[in-house]
Write a structure and sequence with these properties.
Elements (H helix, E strand, L loop, with lengths): L4 E3 L5 H11 L1 H7 L1 E5 L1 H9 L6 E4 L7 H6 L8 E4 L1 H4 L11 E6 L12 E5 L5 H14 L3 E4 L9 H7 L7 E3 L4 H7 L3 E5 L16 E5 L8 H6 L2 E3 L12 H16 L1
Parallel strand pairs: 1-4, 3-4, 6-7, 6-10, 7-8, 9-10, 9-11
Antiparallel strand pairs: 2-5, 3-5
Length: about 260
């Protein structure tokens, strides 16, 4: 890869647009673009057959062996080298690794009616939780995830980092009407409930399955809880009251996978 353009001014319009993408969910939504931070996310993007629109680097990146190994795969991608003082304003990492990729946010291609294994996420607001759930969903083979308008931005830098590349394996529908999704999904929709009288492990999780996952503190809304076909509890013989949303979702996903295998 050639040396590329160098950018040193914080007044540069391109830098200003990138900083908005790094900081604002509204800017990401309006532009239909986001930033991938680091070589792991870029590799996942490339391995999925996706191409970035622009690579953003600092001088350290050009000396990094892992990043250098990826650059030949991006020989046709425009790139810009930023001074460290500018680059640090685009990355949330305390010590930036020196590589960001500007990408177009993929549009979901799979509707609820055609999905086989789905998650409905209602008002999940913690980026780390959301990213972890998306990572588990991708690992377990989910094909679609539907997020209510009250969820954290799925394409924010924090959620992308927590997702560790899982985003590219999923159809992610943001700002979804979950009650409408519950009506159009043709499989069985389940949810955890402290009032349920049987365990997750006694549920039949073969066939088309969806799980509705509620807010970290409030749980599912009454309307969505009533929309599910089956409720269950996750047995917890230890001395804790509950699991966090990401852990509970992972238990559900991999019990489904165990039954199917």
């Amino acid at each position: 890869m050639s040396a590329g353009k160098r950018l040193t001014s914080r007044d540069n319009p391109f830098f200003k647009s990138l900083r908005k993408l790094a900081e604002s969910s509204r800017a990401r939504r309006e532009a239909g673009q986001t930033l991938l931070d680091g070589p792991h996310l870029l590799r996942a993007w490339l391995d999925a057959g996706q191409r970035p629109k622009h690579l953003l680097l600092n001088d350290r990146a050009l000396q990094d062996a892992e990043i250098a190994g990826l650059l030949p795969r991006c020989a046709d991608i425009p790139h810009t080298v930023f001074d460290d003082a500018l680059f640090v304003q685009l990355s949330e990492l305390k010590t930036p690794n020196g590589l960001l990729a500007l990408v177009a946010i993929p549009q979901p291609a799979l509707a609820a009616a055609h999905s086989q294994f789905v998650l409905l996420l209602e008002d999940l607001q913690d980026p780390g939780n959301l990213g972890s759930i998306l990572r588990s969903a991708a690992a377990a083979g989910c094909d679609a995830v539907f997020l209510s308008p009250g969820c954290a931005d799925a394409w924010s830098p924090k959620v992308l980092r927590a997702g560790m590349g899982g985003h590219v394996c999923l159809n992610i529908h943001e700002h979804a009407d979950l009650l409408q999704i519950s009506r159009t999904f043709t499989g069985k929709l389940l949810a955890a409930s402290l009032q349920a009288d049987h365990s997750l492990y006694t549920c039949n999780l073969r066939g088309k399955i969806g799980f509705a996952i509620g807010n970290e503190g409030a749980g599912l809304s009454p309307a969505l809880q009533q929309a599910v076909q089956e409720s269950f509890i996750i047995p917890m013989p230890g001395r804790v009251e509950s699991l966090n949303a990401a852990a509970a979702t992972a238990v559900c996903l991999f019990e489904t996978l165990r039954q199917r295998r």
